[in-house]
Amino acid sequence: MTDAVARIHAAFADAGVTGRLHALDIDSGEELDAGADQPVCTASVHKLCLLVALHERAARGALDLAEQVETVPGGRTAGPTGVAAMLDAARMSLRDLAYLMMAVSDNAAADLLLRRVGLDAVNATTDRLGLTRTRAVHSFGEMLATVREDAGPDGARALADPRVVSRLRALDPGRTNRSTPRDMTRLLRAVWRDEACTPEHGAAMRRIMGLQVWPHRLASGFPFDDVHVAGKTGSLPTLRNEVGVVEYPDGGRYAVAVFTRTAHTAATLPAADAVIGTAARIAVDALRAKAFRSR
């Protein structure tokens, strides 16, 4: 495992990022730690915590996933995908909002769900699962509002300035939604082992995570037709994250959480995206090799 950790850090360095990673064999509990307990800003990865809280409440009968929600353009959280990008009013169920939140990281859908579930319920769910380093402190719209406030009057153009980016509260784990790579793999393990919720709701969450459309981060490390990747990305200026589960046809299941940051402020950095898949592949290969040696 030591060699794999060194290779992961070298891959991060080659891509020009600092990275934190934890990988976990869901069934054996074997793990690989490359900064797994460092606090990280979750950004949209925290939508996974909201998804679990939503299904937990549905399993208890506190809400109905088929419940319809009206969305109007003027009251939506901003974003480039899903309901956030739509021009007209829409009506859809809680579970369809959850699909948009996870599949295309729709900020408006996420905040509509958060209004229904509540921030306290999200934190109660992560507390119940023993995720002591994980905390939601604001909605996704509120998080984005801090970025706008901290950027100042020049708006998005100011985010090209490293000095401006360095003062963003959304990039400080002490002042925004946060977790650790280890907490996130523990959450994924709980979802995949039906420990986070009932089997029915666990299956629904796994299905939704498997519908994520982004292939350029975690999934890029596993370009095989018979390997299934289910995940959730998270992005902010200089931050690129993804957590997910990689499933092999032989039954192997591996939870991986990768959080990266770069000094470059460009929105498009293919190497920084791709290294998430590269690092995850190194970690999973190491876990699988160790499992085969122990048989």
List the helices and strands and how they pair.
Blueprint: H1 2-15, E1 17-25, E2 31-34, E3 40-41, H2 47-59, E4 68-71, E5 90-93, H3 94-103, H4 107-117, H5 119-128, H6 140-151, H7 162-165, E6 178-179, H8 181-192, H9 199-209, E7 228-236, E8 239-247, E9 253-262, H10 270-293
Antiparallel strand pairs: 1-2, 1-9, 3-6, 4-5, 7-8, 8-9
Notes on the protein architecture:
With 295 residues, the chain is of the alpha+beta class. It is built from ten helices and nine strands. The strands form three sheets. A five-stranded antiparallel sheet has the order 2-1-9-8-7, sandwiched between helices. A two-stranded antiparallel ribbon has the order 3-6. A two-stranded antiparallel sheet has the order 4-5. A hairpin with a 5-residue loop joins strand 1 and strand 2. Helix 1 packs antiparallel against helix 10 and helix 2 packs across helix 4.
Short note summarizing the structure:
The chain has 295 residues and is α+β, with helices and mostly antiparallel strands. The chain has helices spanning 2-15, 47-59, 94-103, 107-117, 119-128, 140-151, 162-165, 181-192, 199-209, 270-293, and strands spanning 17-25, 31-34, 40-41, 68-71, 90-93, 178-179, 228-236, 239-247, 253-262. It is 41% helix and 18% strand.
